[in-house]
């Protein structure tokens, strides 16, 4: 059985769990990271020298980097799945969103998430928070524009691009007490994702 190391409230672990459920893959998840520790233990560092989660163990095969894990799982266990189609242009377009999520979206949304969710209100730098919020809003606006006239991110079929950005979108729409500019295309797309059972199970949890 697949083993997935990582706490269930990590966005990068959540993406992996979502894909497993879309592919009906059984797995064992082992808590690690933050309050669960383990990630600095030598045996864990042997698996993942970054000391981060998630890490996938599939028999003797070990893989870290969440987006690489998603691609591997579909290629290995769901090769005909629409989640990551073979067509090179479509695949490259999906990969573009996976890269964008790590290179452009996450660096912008992380400070907002950390401040709003993991920093006591009295210790928040509100000026910085508002500036960070505006930056991340411009990132989501790019997606809102892209989604105009589209049902899902690529090919109008649900793919791993929707999984990756959908997991991050929860950290946008789930923020309490913040004013978000209206983004109707993004909101419609997000409400489609909310209807999926794996989203309800793994993503639609309180932000912690
Ligand atoms: N690029 C990596 C990032 C991994 C990452 O940042 N993981 C975070 C959780 S989302 C982590 O391990 N944080 C430390 C911890 O949980 O102890 C990936 O996508 O897998």
TrEMBL record:
Q: Which residues form the GST C-terminal domain?
A: 87-208
Family matches, as InterPro entries:
Glutathione-S-Trfase_C-like, Glutathione-S-Trfase_C_sf, Glutathione_S-Trfase, Glutathione_S-Trfase_N, GST_C, Thioredoxin-like_sf
Checking PROSITE patterns in the record gives: GST_CTER, GST_NTER
Protein keywords? Transferase
A Pfam family that this protein carries is GST_N
Q: Which domain of life is it from?
A: Bacteria
Q: Does the keyword NAD apply?
A: no
Q: Which residues form the GST N-terminal domain?
A: 1-81
Molecular function (GO) terms listed? transferase activity
Family membership? Belongs to the GST superfamily.
Q: Which PANTHER family match?
A: DISULFIDE-BOND OXIDOREDUCTASE YFCG, GLUTATHIONE S-TRANSFERASE-RELATED
Would you tell me the protein name for this molecule?
A: Glutathione S-transferase family protein
């Amino acid at each position: 059985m697949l083993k997935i190391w990582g706490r269930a409230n990590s966005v990068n672990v959540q993406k992996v769990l979502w894909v497993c459920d879309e592919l009906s893959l059984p797995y064992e998840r082992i808590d690690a990271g933050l309050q669960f520790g383990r990630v600095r233990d030598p045996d864990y560092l042997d698996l993942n020298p970054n000391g981060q989660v998630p890490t996938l163990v599939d028999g003797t095969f070990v893989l870290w980097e969440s987006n690489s894990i998603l691609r591997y799982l579909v290629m290995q266990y769901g090769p005909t799945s629409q989640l990551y189609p073979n067509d090179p242009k479509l695949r490259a377009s999906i990969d573009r969103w996976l890269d964008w999520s790590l290179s452009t979206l996450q660096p912008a949304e992380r400070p907002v998430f950390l401040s709003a969710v993991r920093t006591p209100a009295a210790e928040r730098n509100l000026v910085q928070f508002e500036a960070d919020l505006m930056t991340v809003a411009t990132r989501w606006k790019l997606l809102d524009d892209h989604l105009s006239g589209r049902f899902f991110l690529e090919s109008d079929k649900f793919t791993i691009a929707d999984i990756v950005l959908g997991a991050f979108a929860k950290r946008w729409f789930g923020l309490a007490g913040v004013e978000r500019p209206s983004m109707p295309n993004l909101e419609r797309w997000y409400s489609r994702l909310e209807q999926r059972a794996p989203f309800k199970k793994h993503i639609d949890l309180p932000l912690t």
